[in-house]
Amino acid sequence: WREGLFEIQDEGSQLVAQATLVTPGMTVVDLCAGSGGKTLALAAMMLDQGTIHATDLNASRLLDLKGRSRRRGLRSVHAHAWGQLPPQQADVVLVDAPCSGLGTLRRNPDLKFRQSAKSVEELTKKQAAILASAAKLVKNGGRLVYATCSILREENRDIVDAFNDY
Q1: Radius of gyration (C-alpha) of the chain in whole angstroms
Q2: Distance (Å, rounded) from C-alpha 41 to C-alpha 18?
Q3: Is 149 labeled as catalytic in the residue annotation?
Q4: Helices 61-72/37-45 angle, 10° precision
Q5: Are 144 and 15 within 8 A, CB to CB?
Q6: What does the pLDDT look like over 128-156, one tens digit per residue?
Q7: Is the confidence at residue 4, as pLDDT, over 80?
């Protein structure tokens, strides 16, 4: 791990990365990259060939990504402050949106006490805004992948349906 030979990652995160269907040479935007687990999985799928622009609303989380990426010796990963992405369109844009996390209750049972109808409503507004921004980054014929770790319809199907109706 210290030598960058492997990373430990949740199966769900691996499945989200696989859903992007990235291939070497693509330009990818990981819009809610966090500490970079999915970004690193994308870089591995792309054989570190191409470009991955990673950003997150919480800039401090990108510090982990930078360190992890450096440890792996990746050249394809570029971390950017939120709103500072280069002006180009991507083959794939991944949005693993900030959410209630209610799909992780097995590992984090206290989450049910930290969420409310109001907090979920605030999150859905943020999710819809992020998804709308993400769509502008996808080039013609490209792919937009939206994911959450929530089990709530309002954070998943309702967001996608509203986006499709837009």
Answers
A1: 16
A2: 8
A3: yes
A4: 30
A5: no
A6: 999 999 999 999 999 999 999 999 999 99
A7: no
Mean pLDDT of 101-126: 92
- Using a 10 angstrom Cβ sphere, with 0-12 exposed, 13-18 middle and 19 or more buried, the burial of residue 136 is exposed
8-state DSSP, 31: T
Taking the C-alpha atoms of residue 115 and residue 113, their distance in angstroms, rounded to an integer, is 6
Say yes or no to pLDDT of 166 above 90: no
Tell me if 40 sits within 8 A of 7, measured CB to CB: yes
Q: What is the number of residues in the chain?
A: 166
Q: Which residues are CB-neighbours of 100 under 8 A, at least 6 positions away?
A: 111, 115, 119, 120, 123, 150, 152, 155
Cβ pair 95, 56 in contact under 8 A: no
| C-alpha–C-alpha distance, residues 31 and 74, integer Å | 18
Question: What is residue 3's predicted lDDT score, i.e. its pLDDT?
Answer: 83
pTM: 0.93
Cα–Cα nearest to 26, from 5, 61, 52, 65? 52
Report for 3-7, 101-105, 110-114, 119-123: range of highest mean pLDDT: 119-123
Catalytic residue among 33, 40, 45, 149: 149
**Nearest-angstrom CA–CA distance, 109 and 129:** 28
